[in-house]
Amino acid sequence: MAFEQVFGQDKMKAFFLSAIRQERLAHAYLFFGQAGVGKDAMAVGLGLALNCEDAEKEGCGGCPACRRILRLEHPAFRFMLPVPARPKAMKIERYQEIIRERYLARVDNPYLPVSFSPEISTLPVIGIDQIRQLKQETRLRIAKGARVIVLSHAEEMTVSAANSLLKLLEEPPFGTYLVLTTENPSRILPTILSRCQMLRFPPLDEETVCRALETRWGMETQKAKLLSRLSGGSIQKALDFLDSEFEDRREAAFRFLEACCRGRRLQVFTETDHLLNRWDKNGFLTWLVILQGLLRDLMHLDAAADQRLIHADMGSRLRGLSGHWSGRGLESALRHTEQAIDLIGKNVYLNIIMHELGSALMRCRSETAERIHHG
Ligand SMILES: [Zn+2]
Questions:
Q1: Are 332 and 307 in contact (CB under 8 A)?
Q2: Would you identify the CATH topology of the domain 3-202?
């Protein structure tokens, strides 16, 4: 992932290119922002830019140095992810092979989530052994270029690992740059945060996500547009929607919405129970994000802004629902959906969340209907 292959984040690229040219790089950075916006991609890009053999380019991705970095064989580049512990029965060679595969996959495509095979399934962490090994390596001098160390998902560092890393952050060897990336800076020790320059990676705009889906994942334009609108500016989230159940979930979300719109209480609860039997937490998250999109579309129809429809291909079916809620009712429905997404993150029982959501959406509708009635 050379800088020019990082999608969007133009300000960040410009910032680093000028810092490199003027030799004003800080010794430690913390990149934070949601998943799938290019934090790790930029960190890899920095490693390439600082070590590329082509002085004209800022990391070409093709010269011997760049290729060694991308194969994780360059002594000046270290890339680390949280990893599960080695199961006692597993040979160390097999374990190292799995970890290396994961690292390589992440460097090759930093926009995809990392998953470990069921062979090793304990909670992944960045442990003290990883940091110790890192510190040992930094004692060796590198011939040329600059050493770049990337700790991806740095919030998963154990406390002892973080304390061990502190020393390195306090007195980094000359020419060594650390990049920590995280979705969740509040889970990182303040002593670590205070020693890093913090850079926030904003969500990507829809066009950038759309272009990424078309060019890198070969997606057809109409689908790329739909997913980029649902993505909230994250390529990873857009790709999450790609699984085969997308159409299924969208259909279920529409049926649920329709039942709420028409105030069919029994149907709302049957739909909910049906869904509860089929999906886990992640399935529901996808479903809720789709539901949000459908509600936004009803707002667009309300405002006669048909050209902004997220689910443009469902336009006529959505139009059939658009009379049931007023603008205020829709806003309130959207708020309830957002709350439901929050609650899923907080591990509240799915059936409680879903039943409350159904009731709340029906209330939004009837309040509106009442108001219209009285008005
Ligand atoms: Zn190069």
A1: no
A2: Rossmann fold (3.40.50)
d(CA 163, CA 192): 8
Distance 322 CA to ligand 1 centre (A): 55
Cα 93 to middle of ligand 1, angstroms? 31
Could you report the per-residue pLDDT of 4-25, keeping only the tens digit for each?
889 999 999 999 999 999 999 9
Q: How far is the CA of 44 from the centre of ligand 1 (A)?
A: 12
The separation between the first and the last C-alpha atoms of the chain, rounded to the nearest angstrom, is 59
pLDDT at 45 over 90: yes
Q: What is the pTM of this model?
A: 0.78
Distance from residue 146's CA to the centre of ligand 1 (Å): 14
**Cβ of 161: how many Cβ atoms within 10 Å?**
22
Answer yes or no: are the C-beta atoms of 134 and 149 closer than 8 Å. yes
Q: Is the pLDDT of residue 369 over 70?
A: no
CATH architecture of 243-374: Up-down Bundle (1.20)
Determine the distance separating the centroid of ligand 1 and the alpha carbon of 54, expressed in angstroms: 5
Per residue in 192-208, pLDDT (tens digit) is 999 999 999 999 999 99
